[in-house]
Amino acid sequence: MTTKSSSLNKVFADLPVTIFEAMSQAARDNNAINLGQGFPDDPGPEDIRRAAAEASLNGYNQYPSMMGLPELRQAIATHYGHWHGLKLDPMSEVMVTSGGTEALTSAILAVVQPGDEVVCFQPVYDSYLPIIRQAGGIPRLVRLEPPHWRLNEDMLKSVFNSKTKAVLFNNPLNPSAVVYPREDLELLARYCQEFDVIAICDEVWEHVTFDEHKHIPLITIPGMRERTIKVGSAGKIFSLTGWKIGFVCAAPPLLRVAAKVHQFLTFTTAPNLQAAVAYGLGKSDDYFLSMRKDLTRSRDRLTKGLESLGFPVLKSQGTYFLTVDLSPLGLNESDTEFCWRIVRDYKVAAIPVSAFYEQDPVTSVVRFCFAKKDETLDTALERLSDAVRGRKR
Question: pTM of the entire structure?
Answer without folding.
Answer: 0.95
